[in-house]
Fold these 4 entries.
Entry 1:
Amino acid sequence: MFWRDTFIVFRRQLRMAVRNPAWVIIGLMQPILYLVLFGPLLEPLAGTLGTQNAYTLFVPGLLVQLSIFGSLFAGFSLISEWRSGVIEAERVTPASRTALLLGRILRDVLQLLVQSVVLVALAFAFGLTGSVPGMIVGLILAVLLGGACAAASNALALTTKSEDVMAPLLNSIALPVLLLSGILLPMTIGPQWLQTVSDFIPTKYIVDAVRSLFVGDVFTLTTLWGVVWTVILVVLGLWVGTRTFRKENA
């Protein structure tokens, strides 16, 4: 019953995304532009950054960036559904409140997976090399992080119910996370005080883990910390999202 409800919600959300794929394409454009316009600038600096291939450093950061930014804005569609009465209609159905959330998150995760595969495939054309099994595991970590962000975004959308409130709030969170996670450049090249501040940002450990996986370093402490923080954020995101959905649809 629970999984049937989840699939029904997922199928409806997927149909809506397929009918209007503009947001999927727009979400993919930013990391592709970074790859095309910023990636070549890093190639001469690969040795300085401690790697032989600049793209094994840069592409994992873009994957995490795609996960965070693409999923954090998933809640905007939920506000639109709430305004048009869809959430109110779902309230009178016997469907599990958790399934209502999970179906939407699975749609976001599938979109993110497709976007991530396209980004990595394009990166190979630019010269990305590394461990393919490690890339697959790194991609899974990035997609799971996206699921956690999507759950948190949906919870925030149901709480604020306003794009005008949600947009500046998300931007104020996403920008420091982007800069302090070392997504574009590793934090190891920054001053010590900046490295200390970044130690308090969980996504920094995920970025480092995905980078480690891309070069084939699977069984390392860096990878372990990335996995641990990914699991924590997924559990936390699902808990907050489910709690908000149940409260809203009570």
Entry 2:
Amino acid sequence: MGNVNTRALLAAAASLAGCTAGFRESGSQAAMRVSPRGEIDRSQAPTPRDDLLARAGDDMLVWLERDEAPFANDAIILERLALAVRIRHGRGQREIDNRRHLGVLTERNSSVEERLDAAGALGVVAARRYRIVAAPLFAVWEGRPSGPKDVIGTRFGPIHVVVVPEIFEPFRAAPGGIGIAASVHGLDRSFRSALVALRLCDRAREPMVVADDYGGLIDLLADADDDVQHGDADSLTLVAQQHPWALETVEALVTTQTVREAARELNIHHSTLQARCDTLRTGLGFDPLQGFGRTRLGTAFLMHRLSRSTVLDLPAPAAMTGVSRPAVVQEDWRG
């Protein structure tokens, strides 16, 4: 954790852009260039184009290599690549320490002593509670929070991570996930819950998710193995394939208190919703309105969403038509 190197960052950018990405420090003729396949490109490096170039601090450059005009997403890819490289190559000792110590705090297997040492070095007070904020490198921020930060490698790709107090100043990251509040001994759980919250984001309706909004379910999902089959989620998928109304109906049922309230939310008659509930009961094999049935329904619904999450996919160029600045993406996600 916390050990994404420059080659991995270039490989991610190259994969997203579909062309070779490069990096060079001033005073050095040596450049690292990585192809979209993640391989080092050892051919003669072309002179970086001004419109496909970004500075990563005073003495570092990153660029993309393509012959045609810049693509719509190139500017945002370069901006996030430059940010990640700047963090990775921070010149101050404090930045180097931050990377190491944040990795310790977000790692599940760190010892108590290691967590306390890392927290002390970062200025994270053991007697207080904090949250981990997780966002992809292409996220659009408003009021970026202060606090220890890093780019951490995960199974979903490089993720920008920030430690914020339990009660934090307003900000917005689209998309972004905010983890549960925890002491320094539980910040690995906060990190995992932040990743789940991030994957539950919906660009149009819910661009930033706070784990607290989903109660203990996110805590459970944070420790669940994504590769393990979940019978209730699989059954829900089958029901959704047969009935187009299924997912919106389930969402209304798990976010309201009563069937009548859910019917009003869906703007349908109570009897219609009751008929849908009967169909759900048959398809799922349990009563979604009784006892643990509601919890099983909520868990299946969230697992279904996680398994189909596309929030970490780079926004399609169509969302940025005619403009190449990140602000356009921000407006799109506001719906």
Entry 3:
Amino acid sequence: MKMITVAGPPSSGKTSVIIKLLETMKVNPERVGIVKFDCLTSFDYLRYEEVGVKVITGYSGKTCPDHFFVSNIEDAVRWGLNSGYDFLITESAGLCNRCSPYINGIMSVCVIDNLSGVYTPRKIGPMLKLADIIAVTKGDIVSQAEREVFTFNIRQVNNTAKIINMNGITGQGSFMLAKHLSAARDVVTLKDMKLKFTTPAAVCSYCTGETRIGESHQFGTMKKINFDLD
């Protein structure tokens, strides 16, 4: 079973890119499993169901979305193998920009859209920096100059990834994406494999439900700004 990890900011077009990719690859939808990781809510399962692809959606809720991902990814692989899928694709949205859901040796795709602002590539962090492939969407509704500046800023963060301009409506670019993803690794287990980046080192009182403000209510790993107060 080939495994592909797709991540990107909310509404960047991840689901559209994945659906166009599957159409281009002409794979049997019944041989593909999608695991969608999100924080609070998602309606993307409706789009996957329309094309006949089985999807499992998990919500991190009050827990750190990055910890939630890594706590469940091995079971996701087991689910894909037990279901007899040829492809397992994980889609992650709503993860903080502090880390990334990528695993060493597993093909990783970051989806980012031109409308998010030319400096957005410098703000996303490891999710963009550590991707093998960067799919850039919505380039058809910005100017050539904006596209070039956007690409330049991507290269300032990640100068090794393949950059593919994608159109989630027409499917333009999906052939090139499919070509690169044909080299995705076959997996039977994630045992002894490692994340590309460490998850946030934060377990504090607010992580566990505290709402009161003040140092007397703050425990665990906290980080403070130096305001140079007396």
Entry 4:
Amino acid sequence: MGNKIVVKREKARLSDPRREIVFRVFRFSAEFDVLPFYADFTLKVAKNEVLLDALNRIKAEIDPSLAYRRSCRHGICGSCAVKVENQALLACKANVFELADRYGELLTIDPLDKKLAARDLIVDKTRFWNSYRAVSPWLEATIEEASAKENLVTPAETDRLGGADACVECGICFYGCPVVAANERFLGPAAFAKSYRFAADIRDQTPLDRLRQVSGEKIGVWDCVKCYQCYETCPKEISPIDKITKLRAMIGAERVDQNSIAYRHARAFKTSLEKYGRLDEAANAIESAGFFGALKYIREAFAMLRRGKLPFGVKKIERLDEVQKLVKSASQESKERR
């Protein structure tokens, strides 16, 4: 009897291409709620429906109080960014069947940052936009009102932007960045990608000003820890980490803010490799922070000494010439990519 029921259900499922999905949605109102909670909504979803379709149906058919951002429905505006099973994505681009295949037929939907939830899936993006405005996200150029010729940009010059102009300001990279979470002053990967977009634009007349905007300690590109989280989550495949790396190279080439500890650290790192083929930890700390500045790391220095990680008198490695070739090659490649 039991087997017949199972077979009957399976036949019914196969005859109905829709799948029953439970959406467990984060709910919270900063105005009315003390604590957040989750609400379950069950829908039969068609094969071609995306997550935004499901949210629209929940709002239209079940609970009109559900709040979330939406606009273009084509992955252009970046408004509908949310998290599904802790994975950030654009709701208008995420097929529900594919999500169910990956995570199961109970899907947990969260805002990009639950601590910043203003209402349900809507987060307060004040900090994101403040960081964005801090890098002057517009072209600085003198335009003649009655120019006799067009301001042409070649395909090669456009390629130099590396797709940075495709950013939709969804905030996914920003809210997923561990440095943004730990450091309130850090501008974040989206702002850096936008800064590079204009710093690399041949029409822009203020590239040095832009490099100064993103080179400062605590706020700038030197505080990026290169975890590649922004690379993994960007829905437009812009790779903000690639733009951060290029900005660092441009800052070094233009000798912007040479007195910053981060710049001195990078320079000391390169010098150490060229001289010994390995890192001279003591010299690196003194070169980066200065003699008196390095004293604050004395406890770590003794800990490293005990573990044999801070030997007196750094020796050159064998085949130092091979490392020197690598450093030279990387420096040349960096120049060519700028």
